[in-house]
Amino acid sequence: MATTKTATAAPAESNPVWMTTEQVAEKLGLHPQTIRQWRHRGTVGPKSFKMGGAVRYKESDVDAWLEKHSRDTEQDFD
Predict the structure, then answer these.
(1) β-bridge partners, 54
(2) How would you classify residue 48: left for phi > 0, otherwise alpha for psi between -120 and 50, otherwise beta?
(3) Whole-prediction pTM value?
(4) Which of 21, 30, 33, 76 has its CA 20 to 30 A from that of 9?
């Protein structure tokens, strides 16, 4: 009898920490307007969400984006 594997989705965060644009800007050392411009372009910056008209970022997404961006920058100087 053949065994089949089923794909399982990664577990969702049970209680994600949500950040405002201003908090993300402070964490990244940037002006909030820079974060807004990135969001409008849709090609740069961490993933954002609209929640009842307010823009929010999951802290884990911001951290992951920062980690990836930091690694990419380090490779440029090797």
Answers:
(1) 51
(2) beta
(3) 0.73
(4) 21
